[in-house]
Amino acid sequence: MSKISHHQLRIIGGEWRSRRLRFPAIDGLRPTMDRVRETVFNWLQHDVEGCRVLDAFAGSGALGFEALSRGAKEVIFLEKHPAAAVQLKENLQTLGASNAQVWAGDALLWLTQNPEPFDLVFLDPPFGKNLLQPALDSLQLLPGALIYVEHEATLKPQFPDKWQELKCKNTKEFYFRLFEVEEP
């Protein structure tokens, strides 16, 4: 069995600011960049504390760890790759975070079987795998929920009608957006 090399990410705000966490070097695993995370959490600055968070397609867990560091009540990490899921669990232990769980399995399967209410959802699936639209179609959220979506620039996802886009930025490679589920 070959040894997996590791990379590091830095938590940029909150209780664990400047803490570095390891993540495995896995093809296609791309943690949300520091400057993008900083923008996203500036958008969310008053909306993270005390909320239930879902980090679907967690990968390195950068978004979920950032939410925990900033006072999220609970974070559920969904990650299919076994090495990434193990590293997420190890990082939670390192931080002493007892208010988070890692579900090692298919995020789309979990979404269809667990229509739980979350206050904040991070959707940043691996690029080029056609996972975003099925995830969007599977999410069942209550009014007021916030959804962060990151997707490749070439993708034209169909967002649910009841989602209001609050913020949107893009680079040449990808878009990152924040939505809120509207009241009926």
From TrEMBL:
Alphabetical list of SUPFAM superfamilies matching this protein: S-adenosyl-L-methionine-dependent methyltransferases
Reaction equation(s) it catalyzes: guanosine(966) in 16S rRNA + S-adenosyl-L-methionine = N(2)-methylguanosine(966) in 16S rRNA + S-adenosyl-L-homocysteine + H(+)
Record Gene3D superfamilies: Vaccinia Virus protein VP39 (3.40.50.150)
EC number annotated for this UniProt entry: 2.1.1.171
Keyword S-adenosyl-L-methionine among UniProt keywords: yes
Origin: domain of life: Bacteria
CDD domains in alphabetical order: AdoMet_MTases
Example of a GO MF term: 16S rRNA (guanine(966)-N(2))-methyltransferase activity
Record bears the keyword Chloroplast: no
Keywords in alphabetical order: Methyltransferase, rRNA processing, S-adenosyl-L-methionine, Transferase
Known function: Specifically methylates the guanine in position 966 of 16S rRNA in the assembled 30S particle.
Similarity field: Belongs to the methyltransferase superfamily. RsmD family.
Protein name, UniProt field: Ribosomal RNA small subunit methyltransferase D
Species annotation: Thalassolituus oleivorans MIL-1
The organism's taxonomic lineage, starting at the top: Bacteria, Pseudomonadati, Pseudomonadota, Gammaproteobacteria, Oceanospirillales
